[in-house]
Design a protein that fits this description.
Elements lengths: L2 H13 L3 H4 L4 E9 L2 H4 L9 E6 L4 E5 L6 E6 L2 E6 L4 E6 L16 H17 L10 E10 L2 E9 L10 E6 L5 E8 L5 E13 L2 E12 L5 E17 L1
Antiparallel strand pairs: 1-2, 1-13, 2-3, 4-5, 5-6, 7-8, 8-9, 9-10, 10-11, 11-12, 12-13
Amino acid sequence: MNEQNCDLLERVLIAHGGLERWNRFSTVTASIVTGGLLWGMKGLTQDSNPRLMTVWLHEQRASVMPFGAPNQRTAYTPDRIAIETTDGQVVMERSEPRASFGNHEEGTPWDPLHRAYFNGYALWSYLTMPFLFTLPGVKAEEVDPWEEGDQHWRRLRVHFPEDVATHCPVQDFYFGEDFLLRRHDYNVDVSGRLPAAQYVHDYVEAEGLRMPSKRRAYRRDANNRAIEAQLLVSIDISDLRYS
């Protein structure tokens, strides 16, 4: 990484609370409310009930509850996804879950374990950004800036290694003059490489760490613009707690 890239990433980390502060904590919990068109595309129903999301900050591990029933939760790691009861009994599970998305297209239906895996890796990614950019094997480079309306955003292109489960290997992140994240571009590899532009806003602060409380992911067109009529996923985050 060259000096310019280091400078931008360092400023981004500081703006979100700083790596030293981040390293003091091991987990974060949040209330999440999810919506959007993606669930219907996958043959799923998504309600607007809040759910408790737990993410481990320094390992790829996450859980959401309730999931499928009031006494059920998910147990996510990259090499295993499970749905279990709150007392730890396994309802269903799948090893090497990423392989189960082979040949999936945008409209390929998902079963509960597909949904649980997607929720696990996606929310783990979102609730550890931008600090996951410092994980071993992750590389960030500054690329050309982007004009969005009257906004001028600097961009980091982040390359993720195979052992980090996320949307796709290369993703773009856009930052405002305050070095807070504004937009995140990626392809959803588990859904036919569906192109998305996710906008984030309404930052909240907990324990000195800053996190966007609203995420809106739209289909991205060939000109790298969001198609506002196609809101794929919405996520509202509240009650952020680090421990």
